[in-house]
Amino acid sequence: MDFILSGLKEAFGLLINLDPETISAIDVTLKSSTLSIVFSILIGLPLGFCLGFFNFPGRKALKLLSDTLLAIPTVVVGLIVYAFISNRGPFGSYELLYTLPGIVIGQTILALPIIVSLSATAVEGMEKKLYLTLASFGLTTIQMIQSVVWELRHALVAVAVAAYGRVVAEVGIAMMIGGNIKWFTRTITTAISLETNKGEFATGIALGLVLISIAFLLNFMLFFLKKRARIAV
Amino acid sequence: MKSSMYELQNLRTLYGEKPVLDIQSLSVYEGEILGLVGSNGSGKSTLLRHLAFLEAAQSGKLHYCGFDAASLPLATRRDISILLPEPYLLKRTVRENLLFGLKVRGEAHNADQRVHEALELVGLLPKKFMHRSWHELSSGETQRVALASRLVLHPKTLLLDEPTNSLDYSGIPQFTDAILHANREWGTTIVIASHDLSWLSEIATRKIGLHFGRMMDFSTTNLIVGKWRESGDERFFDFDATQSMSLPKSYRIGEKRGVAINPRDISVSFGTPNACEENRVYLNGTIRDVLHITKTNEISLKIMIGNHLLECIESFEQFECHHFYPSQYVTVSFEKSAIKVPSKEP
Predict the structure, then answer these.
(1) A162 Cβ contact partners less than 8 Å away, ≥ 6 residues apart
(2) Is pLDDT at B226 greater than 90 in this prediction?
(3) Which of B55, B92, B104, B136 to mutate: most A Cβ within 10 Å?
(4) N or C, fewer C-beta in 10 Å, chain A?
């Protein structure tokens, strides 16, 4: 029991004194997850919108595929990306393995189905009254898309926040693709895993506290966004 | 004769197997206020959505200013504005809601002045409401903002679906004035669907009744729906245990479709009539309500016959001679030919 308490004490010390090793892990985590969320939104939101808004043959099959990929284990994404970017893989020459861009690619792939599926669900679940109201103003297709996205803004930001939560807390991709290299690709989750193995509880607890704070902040935002999204009429 | 805005011919819509709208022919004339009357599911809302080009009918002709849905230019389509039932406001402030329609049309000129004007028309103080958010409004205020965001566009055609639903009595006069203002000042053609018959009579220049998607040439207040009992060559409709009316079997009376009797074809007299004519139906009842229709200077009498309420409309002169009053026991009579059966099954 003592080692937990002393670990907790030491952890606060590390955070207050801005221990460079700890800060580096936080920095890498925030960089990789933010970049991957930006990329997955850029790719996923238009796809999700089309999947939810337009009716075309094969739509349901695509939605099912995307929903299935929601549950894909992070280590499987890690494995696939590893296979493609390792030296023997087709993109080996880009030397992306054990780099931050490598992690970003993996985490973008992880976040993509979340963004696509949940935003498609949000657009699909749009009230018919909203659609008819917008349509009654005689909008062009572009104006229609802009207006729908703006009216659903709370729900769509909530989707991005949910995806960020999954990416920031994942360990499989960061470990397999990043390789947990100190100062370069060591993220909060890989550091916790390694430090615990080494018996260094203090660093692990300190990083764990940061991760929990991020999770709390994200859920706090989600709570308000969902409340906003619900106030419809 | 004013030119027509809408021309409808053989317009039909089915939901699954069930026909919800079947209109043989209808014109909506420029500058008129057309009232649509009918019970729930009579097709009023469907017709309005067709007129707004939000939903296409399965078959038939629907022309607006000479254009059909396929050839209708966006600019002309934007002359039509519809207020849906239980209106939906965009998740923005009141001001942004009103500006939305102007912005998509690229009419930013004098925008704020027009927003002020529209809010004042529906009886909302611009200063107080301009910057309120969509969720800070009561249902009556939401309804007014929704109407204001249509009026701000000065539409050529305004379609209103149950516009008085969330308004209380004190709010209706202002709302009525706003609609009449659009009609008189901007020449807006207006089509209103409403359950509120007396309000509609007050505002509309013409009324048409819809019943199970079919058009009647008068208001459907005297719509009699119910079971007809068969006996010999006739079918009987029982108002109560002792009173009934009958029609020959050759009349195809659909059980659900009912029959309608024009309230102006019914005459009212006191006591039992002296001579009974063969082709007339005589029924006894009690007056429940007497109402003066100011626009046409007529008297509307609601008469309870058994379990059914029948409306009769008499001229004011007739009323002056007789002085009808509620609780009075009267006899109503009408020609059998006044019983209208909605057009035959499609």
Answers:
(1) A114, A118, A222
(2) no
(3) B104
(4) N
**Cα angle, residue B91 at apex, residues A45 and B101 outer, rounded to 5°:** 95
Q: Which residues of B113-143 are buried (b: 16+ CB within 10 A; e: fewer)?
A: ebbbbbbebbbbebeebbebebeebeebbbb
pLDDT given at position A232? 41
pLDDT score, position A219: 87
Q: Find all residues with CB under 8 Å of B146, minimum gap 6, and list them.
A: B83, B87, B88, B89
- Is pLDDT above 90 for B292? no
Residue B302 contacts residue B311 (beta carbons within 8 Å)? yes
Q: What is the pLDDT at residue A233?
A: 30
- Per-residue buried b or exposed e for A6-21, using 16+ beta carbons within 10 Å of the residue's own CB: ebbebbeebbeeebee
Res. B346 pLDDT band, cuts 50 70 90? very low
- Residue A64: φ, ψ to 5°: -65, -45
Q: Which residue of A has its CA nearest to B90?
A: A151
Torsion, CA B4, CA B10, CA B11, CA B12, rounded to 10: 170
Torsion angles phi and psi, residue B25, rounded to 5: -160, 135
Q: Determine if residue A114 is left, alpha or beta; phi over 0 gives left, psi from -120 to 50 gives alpha, anything else beta.
A: alpha
Cα–Cα dist A96/A85, whole Å: 6
Average pLDDT (A14-37) is 93
Is A166 touching B (CB cutoff 8 A)?
no
Mutate to test the interface with A, among B53, B55, B88 (most CBs of A within 10 A): B88
In the 8-state DSSP scheme, what is residue B31?
T
Question: Closest approach of chain A CAs to the CA of B2, in angstroms?
Answer: 26
Distance CA A189, CA A69 (A): 22
